Every structure is written in C-alpha cells, then in structure tokens.
Amino acid sequence: MDGPQVRTEVLSGITVALALVPEAVAFAFVAGVEPLVGLYAAFMVGLITSLFGGRPGMISGATGALAVVMVALVAEHGVQYLFATVVLMGIIQVIFGALRWGKFIRLVPQPVMMGFVNGLAIVIFLAQLEQFQIATPGGGHTWLQGADLALMLALVGLAMAIIWLLPRITRTVPAPLVAIIGVWAVVELLGLDTRNVGDLASIEGGLPAFAIPMVPFNMETLGIILPYALILAGIGLIESLLTLNLIDEITETRGRNSVECVAQGAANIVTGFFGGMGGCAMIGQSMINISSGARHRLSGVVAALALLSFILFGSALIEQIPLAALTGVMFMVVIGTFAWRTFQVMRKVPLSDALLIVVVTGVTVVEDLAVAVVVGIILASLVHSWRVSRLVSARTWRSDDERVKTYHLNGPVMFASTDKFRELFTPKTDPARVIADFTDSRVWDMSGVDALKSLAERYIREGKTLEFHGLSPDCAKRLGDYTRLVVRDEEHDPKYELFVDRDNPPGAPVGH
C-alpha cells in the first residue's frame, strides 16, 4: 500500500470503530448482557477476522441477528452458558470451513441476494429509529417531540449532508468521520442539549480476561447449548458469506469463503473464552469501510484496536459523541446499501423472481436473515424446478412404412418433469417398434431413471418393442433389467453421470 491508501485505511478504521460503539452496546442490551460483553466481542471478532479472514475490508462484530437468538439462552441459563455456546458455535464454524462448505453460498440465487440486501437495509434503518425515542419513568419508551425532535432531525440531516457533499470536494478523509466530528463540534460550540453515546451506557473497561466458561461439562450442558450453537453458527456464516459476496460485487474482487468460515469460527472460539458474546460480519459497518475507500486488512485491524483503546483510555471522550451523528452515518449506509435498482429490475424479471425479492426482503425484516435465506432458496428451487419441468418436449415422426415411431426428446428428465415426460408417449396407439432418442436430452437423477423404467413397462405391457438411444453409460447401467433396451453408440453417446454419486453432487457440471 502507498501512503495515501494507508491514510485511508487508518481513517476509515477509526470511523468504523466509532460506528461500532453504539451498535455493540445496543446488541448487548438485546442479548441481555452487559455492554462490555458486546464491545469485547466487537473487538476480538473484528481483529481476528480482519487478520485471517477471507475478505479484506469486511468488518465483523456483535450483530443483532445473533443477539435475538442469544436472549432466550441468557434469560434461562445465564451468561456463562452463552460463553460456552459461543465457543461451540466457533468450533462448528471452523469445521464448516475446514470441509470447504463455504462454496455452497454460491447457490444463493440473485433474487434472494437482492432481497437479503434490501431486507438488511430496512433492518438497519428501523434500528436507528430507536435513537428518536427516550425512556419513560415506567420503563417504556416514547418518541421525541417538539424542539427535541427538531434538533435531532437537524443534526442527523447535517451529518447526512456532510457525507453527501464532502466526496464531491475531496476524498482525502472519509466523509463519515468528518460528519461525526462536525456534528460533535456543532453541539459543543452551540452548547446543544442532545443525547450522546454515554446516555446508552458507559463503555469504560479493562482488557478482556481469559476464563473458561463456568458451566458443568456434561451431556446435559451439551444438550442445552448445542441447538443454540448450531443456529448461531448458521446465522453467522450466512450473514458473513452473503456480506462477503456483496463486497465482492462492489469491489470486483473475489473473497475466499471457506477461509472466512474458519476465521469467523476461530474468532468466536477466542471470544467465548474472553467474555464476548460472539459475532459475525456486519453489513452496515462493512459498507462504511468500503465506501470510505478501504480495501485491505489494515482498516479492520485499526477499527478493532481503536475500539479497544476507546474502552481502555477514551471512554470519556467517545461517550460525548452525539447519537445524531452516528444515526446520520447509518442512514447514509441504508441509502447506499439498499439496491435501488430493484424497482427497475422487478419490472423486467419474471413475476416469480419479483415475488421472491419481496418475500425475502419481508422475511428478513419480520424474522431474521437465516430464515429469509432458507425460505428464499426453497422458493427459488421450487420455481426453478417448475420452469425446468416445462422444458421437456419431444418431436415425433414415423418411418416410411409406418412401422417405427421415433421420439426425439429435448430438455431434462428429472423429478420435476417426470409427469410431463410420461404424457409425451402414447404406447397404446404407437406402432410395434418405438425409439426414444435422448441425444438432445439428459436424464438428471434417479427419478428420471424410474420414469424410463416405467415407460419401458408400459410398452412391454402393450407387447411392443422400445429402444433407448443417446443415453450415457451411467444412465444405461442404472436401468437394471431394462439396460437391454439401450442401443449404444460409443462414438456419439454422451458421457455424463447422474446426480446421485458422492463425486457428482447436485450442481456438478454436465456435458459430453
């Protein structure tokens, strides 16, 4: 890196650290733990993933997606069980990465990815609305009103204006950092009374200390923490890998999914032993970092170390930062994160894809990211299967003497298309000899093979001869007793294998 890039990385890291503080504190409250538990997690997870992760420039820390799962565990069993769960969560993630399963995130369709991005942008926006509320004596919350609301909106607007205007003048320093400092300066110079970071909680503390979670090491404990660990590991990896893919698209570079899985797991193992609540990639802070020009590991390292320095030495100063400044920064993150081209895309794509975007966005907001992605993948798979099922077709012709009928098939023969495949054939009215030519078709799975067997039985019951042409050796072998019906052409027959073998998982390339 040259000098200007180093400066960009350092300043961007400081900006990210400032934005991490209220997020970590808020998510700690959501999980039902002390603020320092969230801050320590942001420091340790952020530092380890920045040093060893598969996506330079991506920021990790304590997140709301994980916090909402943790709250039930903490409420019922206490914070020590949370630490043990975070350690087990990390072990699961390391195993996932070591088995190189991170590559399967590529199976997430583009409409699901777009829905994920839009859903998280809305979630980030809704989370900032809490800054427009104040606590009431009864323990509830009420919205700001009158002069307090006007002041909050004015300061948020000032921060957003600085972030929008400054890059048009200079990119020497990150606009979000200038916005935070600028709003703080205005508040101090004018003596304005507005809420600041210190109103959330004190962030003062010492170095995180190593401690083995104080839980019984027996099967009962494992039975309690394992379900939570599996859910947390899944949510953490899904959010991290989807954020990684998003940054890949923005920077036009390629991250390493499995390396990121291992780094996330290692970070959570360490965090669990040092009193942190665990974490994963944070799309909001990552977007701040990337939009500020950071592209290397240095920015993430600086952010983590700056956060630790705030805890150790600078809490009094950081607690004076107006929440309005950080809210303005996050609102600009929302604007930059939301895929505004969605509205244009939805007018051009099939209705099923447009509905998929809306569903994933909605489920991300109402439930959580993991549920949204799973629902999205299932729906996308069903839509794809339906589309594929309509592709199978056949051209037919008879020989000059009308004694032979040929079915020349096109499209895939698979679980979703077997019904239509059967409808293509008319055994009762066909001549004594029938040829089913699969030269321009493919049998994808065992459901397709079963459809061929069923077809052979139909013609045998009618006392007619059926021949299969253009099948691969693997497909012919799986026909069992009906392999004798296959007419081989070694020179021209395809060589693909069915998607049933361990070495040929679904999604493997198919070809001649």
TrEMBL record:
Protein name per the record: SulP family inorganic anion transporter
Organism for this UniProt entry: Pontivivens nitratireducens
Pfam families listed in its UniProt record: STAS (PF01740), Sulfate_transp (PF00916)
Main location (coarse class): membrane
TM ranges: 36-53, 81-99, 111-129, 149-166, 173-192, 224-247, 298-318, 324-343, 355-383
InterPro entries the UniProt entry points to: Membrane-Transporter-like, SLC26A/SulP_dom, STAS_dom, STAS_dom_sf
Annotated CDD domains: STAS_SulP_like_sulfate_transporter
Cited SUPFAM superfamilies: SpoIIaa-like (SSF52091)
Entry GO terms, CC: membrane
Keywords of the record: Membrane, Transmembrane, Transmembrane helix
Subcellular compartments: Membrane
Domain STAS per the UniProt entry, residue ranges: 404-479
Mode of membrane association: Multi-pass membrane protein
